[in-house]
User: Fold these one by one.
Assistant:
Number 1:
Amino acid sequence: MNNYKTVFFAIGVLLVILGAFMLIPFFVQFIYDEKNNTFLLSALVTAFIGTLLVLTNLEENKKLNLQQAFLLTTLSWLGIAIFGCLPFLLSNLNLSFVDAFFESMSGITTTGSTIITNLDDAPKSILIWRAILQWLGGIGVIVMAITILPLLNIGGMQLFRMESSDTAEKILPKTREITLIISIIYLALTFTCGISYWAVGMNIFDSIAHSMTTIATGGFSTYSGSIGHFQNPRIEIISIIFIVLGSIPFIAYLKFVKGDKKIFFKDAQIKGLIYILIISILLMFLYLMLSNKEYSFSENLRISTFNVVSVLSGTGYVTADFSSWGNFPLIFFLFLMFIGGCAGSTTCGIKIFRFQILGHFIINQIKKLVYPHGVFSIKYNNEKINDTFIYSIITFIFLYFFIFFILAALLSVNGLDFITAISGSASAISNVGPGLGNVIGPNGNFSDLPNFSKLSLSLGMLLGRLELFAVLVLFFPSFWKN
């Protein structure tokens, strides 16, 4: 067990930090006169366990090998989800452990699915805690995607390491400095988003909560009607802008700060994101114009833009019940769920860069059929992509859909209808939030699902957030052999 002291030390530090963040909702309880000690007790328990882990693992050298890095990645997210559910469990919402764990896992993985049926009347402290969980999950995902996953060679994430392999000393600082700079950028975007929300009509509490879940592309709202509750086009526009900013790879922000002023115009992922957004918004806009006479031209454009951006990024905010728009939006949004945003951002899904590289690979295979003796190479962001890299991406995409079907089958076996099972599985593994249909669609929630389905979806959220392999590798006996 000594070999894993570094892992437990790091988890202890994370729990102490989590306990400290629980004090924020504790002060919110004072402000809004919520007479209970839910968050104080949760903070004390979490910080106590975290401190024990830190103190009992002080002696070991604080270096991680590959095996420990995989273990830390999974256990840290699982541990935060477990301790993060304490406030839900101890609150007056009368939630079971399964419900509390589901809500916490949905928060920390920035999924946005909820089991709380009436958010409008929920305690303010609980609402801000949900936002904090997503905000912490968002920055955690970014740091993990840039500093840990590239070292683990997971599903093509080594692309980030490859991008900086030749000029790491010139362009990118060391890991600790990367984390600090990205955290400052993340905090600045959150602050700017909150000020913008307040300026266009939100009250201070709602603007703070929504700014955290917007930048994290998480989608937790303080109202059951989500962003649609406000009926304010300016709020929707602010939301669109900052969701897109949260969907951009934070490595691009870092490079911009380091002097690469053209990075936003030349990065292949960012260009791919913009192209997909434009095409998707145009398709949905044309569909609504031809099939829905209820909205005006500008309303159709705004609604199409908002919902496409929200679904593609995995944010999950809603302004309208797109389940009632017909069959095409259901299939189209399901497709967007799988695509997701950019790697290295707070978004989820398979990620744009994988589809881009897969597209280049398919084109090359066609070229080889036409020109059997030709030599063709694949480049991405001016870096040559080798076959091993491509195979890891193909394997990831295959496994992604395989787990999606397994999860959908588990949900259907548990009695859920086809639309609920399929969209629930896609929503969980893509960390989107609301599903499709009447049960878990934009106007529903996950409270009525059986406990087995909630636990299955929670596992799907964890797998999707940690890029599948970081979790699955732990179940192979050969992994634990020296």
Number 2:
Amino acid sequence: MPSLEIRALVVALAATPDKPIVKGFSLTIKTGEVHAIMGPNGTGKSTLSKAIAGHPDYVITSGDVLIDGKSILEMEPDERARAGIFLAFQYPSEIPGVSIANFLRAAVQARLAEGEELDATGYYKRLYSKMDMLKIDRKFTSRSVNEGFSGGEKKRCEILQMAMLEPTFALMDETDSGLDIDALKIVAEGVQAMRGDKLGVMLITHYQRLLDHIVPDFVHVMYDGRIVKSGDKSLALELEAKGYDWVKTELVTA
């Protein structure tokens, strides 16, 4: 069973490498598992996901990230993507002048073996099927990626990318951010439809509400750059009831 192993990872901004944000984070995610990462603002959740994906603004000063025992730290971001990593951003970027259809077609083509060409008919059939699943109007294929989109439309477009690329490991950074109840349900249903033994998910969120729709196998509390508590779905409910100050108090008294 494929695994994503994060070993004692220390991450800082590239501009200030001597000031770590993630401070010895360790976690193993196997395909078929959904791990929810919860924690207060500023504890390093988004930094963690971006560093794993290879974002140039961040530097990994120690530790390792491995897929099936092989380190990915020397890989460029596009190589990490081809190795099976997908990052769903908290704030997806706009790409003016590039249609969703062409953007996704290029992304899917990049995953194919050298010399292999994408079948256009099969591609559009699959694209429309995924759009229908996410309740995205098919007219969106001609719109520029995320340009003029609402928060919910951007997140649906991000999940559409994930559905088309079929990654082995999805890092989902606050997917529920900016979503109303209806959009949250649609996005969650899309993720649930992809859930299975071929996909491992690291789901970063502040709130328990997303976990009502995407029930995690494991919940981890991240505080001051590392995991300080782990449990099942009930841990998220406990956090909802007691708040993150409860975790801080436990750490002080431990």
